[in-house]
């Protein structure tokens, strides 16, 4: 099978930039794909970050410290951009206007206004394919639950819950970084950082919250700055959002939570759906397990927990008995993005696309309303009209 090679540039060579490099280096893990990313150019404001790529990624031919030079590089067809949130709007707009396809990181703009700037650039340049990074739905257990929703297996939805919980900020001695400052992470705090992950599947299912009541917490008021001083920790640590979902034929509560301080949770993403005909749960805490409770009137109510096979959206060399993990979800997400670039939305080898700019925009509507709810103490309606 001949393969289309897609020339990639990476802007932002930190934690997530390296994760992409790792996924691209492990492309042989995938079976039956006719596309492949090749990272040819990288850019970071910090020379040590690009140096890592020079040493570790043989395909990298050019390194830059100004992203505009990378955008002028004719070998770059598409860009992965993983920089702090306050830089998203300007850099994403410039990428789109340069005619490069983009996988951007969440939250896709530091606030609603920044997100609107990105969407305006996209409207003016409809030829570029732009998607937002969100890998957890690519876990086989999450994929299974998404399929059950699409097949209408849950009956009437009673309630749904999605969350993303971290625990490392429980340690008050953890030094501050850009994710704890409003100037770089934005006023959304933990919602901007973690919320797109939590909203991706609900929005994909068409579950648009019509209102939100938010409870936002700041738990650790200050942190060491790394040079002996204590500085204010400005962003929201935890958020609990009680949403009301109204679809054409259903109305139900959707609980969303994003937590930087959830004791005992390293990186727990989960979704739980209760319905009159089926209930189901998946959590990355037990990445192999999917629990479900099918119900028929008068029948037994018994949870079944099975080890979900390693059955990913894109086939791999890994046997079905082995565990699926974070790096696998990143690889699968990258396969979906490259598949869409190579074959178009209608020609993809499997139908689950990466999160769309429209879904990212939906997440901004929810976070913006949540901030208003926190300020006023009110339940805030969310307007989904254009
Ligand atoms: N999808 C996920 O699971 C996931 C996980 C973590 C972070 N993220 C997202 O990825 C993005 C980056 O987060 P990270 O954890 O990789 O951060 P990071 O701090 O590890 O890396 C950011 C990099 O951007 C570089 N940078 C800053 N300004 C720049 C500029 N003007 N030009 C070029 N490079 C610049 C920094 O030097 C740094 O190397 C954020 O949007 C974050 O929300 C996503």
Automatic annotation (TrEMBL):
Provide this UniProt record's keywords sorted from A to Z: Oxidoreductase
SUPFAM superfamilies given for it? Glyceraldehyde-3-phosphate dehydrogenase-like, C-terminal domain (SSF55347), NAD(P)-binding Rossmann-fold domains (SSF51735)
Where does the GFO/IDH/MocA-like oxidoreductase domain start and stop, copy by copy? 144-242
Gfo/Idh/MocA-like oxidoreductase N-terminal domain spans which residues?
Answer: 7-124
- GO MF annotation terms: nucleotide binding; oxidoreductase activity
Q: Does the keyword Oxidoreductase apply?
A: yes
PANTHER family in the cross-refs: BCDNA.GH03377 (PTHR43818)
* Name assigned to this protein: Gfo/Idh/MocA family oxidoreductase
